[in-house]
Structure formats: structure tokens, C-alpha cells
Input
Amino acid sequence: MNLEPHIASRYLFSKKGHNAINIISGISAAAIVVVTAAMICVLSVMNGFGQLVELMFSEFDAPVLVVPASGQTLRTDTAPVISLYAREEIEAISMQLEQTALVRYKDHQLPVRVMGVDSLFTRTAHMDAIITDGFYSVWDGAFDRTVLGQTLASRLGVNAHFTGALHLYAPQRTGRINMLRPDKSLQHEHAFIAGTFAVNQTDYDDQLMLVSLPLAQRLFEYDEYTASALRIQPKEGVKISRLKSQITEQLGEGYRVLDRYEQQADFFRILRIEKWLTVLLLVFILLIASFNSIGSLSMLIIDKREDIRILSHLGASERMIRRIFLFEGWFIAALGTVIGLVIGVLVCLGQQHYGWLKLGTGSEYIISAYPVQVQAGDVLFVAVVVLALGWLAAWYPTHKMKIQ
Output
């Protein structure tokens, strides 16, 4: 039987000689409980927001996207690209051509991102889930149609029920500019509004217009074998990471293969930075709270001076006596950590199921309550950090204590 943990546990729950020591020890444990629970809640809420954003992007972004390693376009009639169609793991491959143009409706004109898509586009994007008005269509058999972001439609002063056409203009890529008639140096196309969509992300809702791929190819003066990206939809059950690596190896160095996280790399990088900066702030608060443990342990050492002398006379070494109080301080941290983890996880699960903390009830909110996602890795991370700081807080006073 190890005497140091046993004696330390007796000191932890026994009544001290001075009531102030009990109070300070309680405050130390309570501070650790509060900060530990706060870290669990903050990490879980940040995970919830990350999951929410990922779901919103996944409605539109393709599971796998192939883009050129350099330049704006790629050829779809090359051997590496054609070989992709033979892969059994792929359910659909959709071509898209995206560039910037000017859109005009009556007196309103704005720069926009025009994305031309083919008939397989809806196999790689869940358009039915994000249509807010009208319906999805980029070609009705007789006329070119367009589906545009909800905010963009509002800025143009249009909606899905307007019968007027939107006019699209893009500079000619080929030929010479006519200085006498600059308007003749612009490619012009038009499309009728079919519907509007909302991904609740400004990059899409404020700037994007979906048109048919042939219209985009005419507008930007490309042939039918030119695209800016290939959208790939794997078959159900296919692992994205494995398929991505296989496609990367198959296509070679002239292409980049991106999963959904890499397509929105900047956004998710900012989200991770915000998450860990918040955690760093809470760790700093925990470090300050650890000074309470140093104070309570120092007072306990003074209170147990007589016990230290008795243990020394009975043959206890200095190392053993220091370890007793080291365990005492670490037990305080461990007790606060366990209680804090339990409270934090219970609060997060309650928020997840009952939505106690509301964001709001207006239409401007995507969800009504704060999203929460508890991850086992975060719980383990918090436990390790708190216990490590608790051990350091206990080590300092026991290292400085004088046995004699």
C-alpha cells in the first residue's frame, strides 16, 4: 500500500486546524470546476458552429472537387480526366465553369460570379434543400434560366416571379478591342430567373449566379471541353479521403483534388484559430485560479507542521513527505476536474437536447439555440491540461517546503 496517496486523501477530507484552510481549499476546487466546465462548454459550442457551417457548405459544395493546379481552366478531353469516368467508386462527375461577369437588370448592375453547370450538377449539390423561392432550372428546353443567390436577387431588385431577363456581360477573350465601339468588345447573354437559393454564406448568397454550362461557355468564349472544375460525387459508402488520394495519384501534378474542408480552407482555418484562442484565454484563467491551490496547499503545510515532524521522527524521508502534499494538491485538482467535466458535459448535452440558451427567434437566425457538439477528444484535452496545471501548482509549494 502506498502511504503517500492514502495520507494525502485523509488530509483532503479531514477537518483542518484553521477553518480558513477549508474555505480556501473549497474555493480552489470550485475555481477549477468552473473553468473546466467552461472549457468543455466553449469547445462544444465552437464544435457545434463548425458542424453547422459544414452542413451548410455541404448542401452546395461537391464532396470532391478537381481544379487545375495553375490557371483558371482545365480540359475535359484529356486522357487523365477521361479515365476518371471509368472509376467504379464514382457515381457522377459534373462540369462547372465559373468566372466573373457583369449582370444587369433594368437600372441595376452588379459584378457577379457566374457558374455554368451541366445536367449532373444536382447529383453533386442538394439544390432542393437550399432553394428559397421558385425552383431550380438552368435550361427549360427553350430558354436559358438562372438561379441566383438570395441576397444578390435582393440587390438586383428581382425575385423568382419576374418575367424580365437578366443580361450578362463579359469582356471578350479573343479578338481586338474596338475603341470606337467599346460595347462591341463585350460578350452578351441573357437568362430568365427560375429561382433563388440561400446557403447562408456571403460568398454564395451575395455573388453567385447559376446558369447552364453552354451559356457560360458562350459568355466566356470557351469550347465544350473547357471547365474550371470537375465536381465528383462518390457512391454511397466510399471513403472520401481514400478516393481523393486515388484521384490525385491518377490525375498527376497538373490538378488539385479538394475535399469540402479544403474547398473552404480559409473559413475553417479562421474557425479553428478562434476556437483555440478562446481555449488559450480559458487556460490563462485556469492558471490564475491555480494560485488558489498554491495558497491553500502552503497553508495546509503550515497547519500540518506537527504531523510533518512526527512523520520525520518515525523515519519518513523528505521525498515521502513532499509526495504526500504533492498528492494532496493533485487530488484537489483531480476532484475539481472530474466535477467540472461532469457538469460541462451535462450542460452541453442538456443544451443539445433542450436548447436552453437561445440565439433568437427572428428569421435572421439560421437556428434558434446555440449548437453544441461534445467530442471525446476535447474532453480528454481539457482533462490533461487541467490535471497538468494542477500538478504544477502542487509541485511549487511542496518543492519549496522545509521539512525541518
User: Anything to note?
Assistant: The first strand starts at residue 64 and ends at 68. The two ends are 26 Å apart (CA to CA). DSSP finds 14 helices and twelve strands in the chain. The chain has two domains: 3-57+267-400, 64-260.
